[in-house]
Amino acid sequence: MKLNLTAALPLALLLPVMAPAQTVFDLGEIVFSAEFGETTLEETGATVSVVTREELEETGETRVIDYIARLPGVDVRSRGPVGGLTSVTIRGAGQNYVRVLVDGIDVADLSGPQAAFDFGSLTTSDISRIELLRGGQSAIYGSEAIGGVINITTLRAEEEGVTQFANIEGGSYNTLRGSYGVAARQGPLDYSVTVTRTQTDGFSAAEENDGFNEADGFESTRLSFSLGHELGNGGRVGVNGFVENARVEFEESFPLSDGSPDEISFNHSYGLRAFVEWPTGSVTNTLTATYYQIERDVRGSYVRDFGSGPTLYTANNVYSGERVNLSYLGAITLSSSTSVRFGLDATRETFSLIGDFGPDAGENDSIGAFGELAWSPSGDLDVVTTLRHDNHARFGGMSSGRLAASWRPTSEWIFRASAARSFREPSLYEMFYRFGGNPLLQPEESRSADIGVERRLGPDAFLRGTLFVNETENVIDYVSGAYVQIPGTVVRRGAELEFGTPITSAWRIDGSYTYTAGENPTLSSGNAWNLEFPEHDLSVTLTGDITDRLAAALSVQSVHNRPTLDDYTVANATFTYAVNGSIDAYLRIDNILDEQYQLVDGYGTSDRAVYLGLRSRF
After folding, report:
1. Which pTM does this prediction carry?
2. Which structural domains are found in the chain, ordered by start?
3. Cα angle vertex 438, ends 433, 439, to 5°?
């Protein structure tokens, strides 16, 4: 089947107007990830979910991944407790098809088999905002952005003066987490610093019901910071970054397997971004440089018998990845209805492996050029066209594009549609790993489209539905000891439904449902890893006030029809008590029903767990 990308937009614009005008809530919240320039939720044709710090605190999750797992289109694959390898699937497209940025820094791990971000250790302590952008986005973000983009922002100064944040939490599995942050805005200067410490004994990453009982602990220290200054000419200069050191105990598996509890990874990651914005006549210019490095020192032991009896071997390996990026973005407002954005970026990525399974090394350079036209022919219609061309040192050029539109015929209705061509370049590991790497690999190519409608039902109520399809060709897979290109087309399609409404003056209900289906006629069931997502995923969250000081949040997620795993329903609850105007005490209960389930075959999840915490803003 070939996807007709030109059909989606006209279909959206021809849908009928079905309701009269009424007073509704404001969707004018600024979105930073859907275009090269900022836009609003109602004006973008892309499908975006925005999560604020207040929403994160309301439900109280420790890990970022535990919150976004309830967003439409998202499936999570977590291998055990906090710190365990954890990936995200968006609209059925796995971790290697999802671009993740933290404060504008691409944090995909170049030292792994695919360039992907491990969410296992990322906590909510220093997070102020998450934007989840679904659908193909390579025209904006380049490689990997086939399934979507997750854009994470850490704490920032939101008002004049100094604001401090503190949080301490303890509970099940001997878990202790604490954080302190300060954010300030004083005239043209703003800055923020947050330090977070997390440690836990954890539980067995391997399923305890299968007889495994070795707890896999985790500890980490993370520092994030930002510094900005407004310039006299209307520009701005700034720097932001993070440093994280973590110690992760992981479950042994090939090639580390001897029954000993000594599998440990010492992970060190660093990110830095510097930028300057300045106007020159009618053009607003932004020059940005980013740097990201990750090093994983993986240690363990294993037993092998090569004919002379079992022998114990140690396996110590250091996996490293580094990315340097320099970009320029220009923006011109041609008229009240038309603006143009354009620019260039250059990236160098390197990978190395030193140790018992090495040495291996590789690098890749790429240069990209892009342009975007944003056109608003009327007050109720916005159309954005984005084109990009990347030239890679190893496999030549790759073009991508996206067309997105938002139409608002009345104040109650929003119709959205987008169509995109995206790509994923082979990872350095896939090209250069000594045991099966293939330097002749070509990029995977994707065509995608979605069409959606949103109905505002009152001041704080809405209903939103989206249909989507994604076709990917030239899929890269590891077959018979080597990375190869698979012929044929992998198809993922489905529907997303979101809703939210107050049910009393004190209580509100929000939820989402995602249906996802896939086709992969070219791969056997043993290699169909890229179709391992649930067919049905329903999430509902109830929030409200029990008394003037006591608030509650109850979330339930029910997942059904997974290819290799059983269905499950898991419920969590958080109760928050306002001690005074600046201090909140909270109780969080994870997995209230003590559901026994897995997110990845063979890996366990938390039993019922209880956590107590204090949170302050002053």
Report:
1. 0.91
2. 5-617 (2.40.170.20)
3. 100
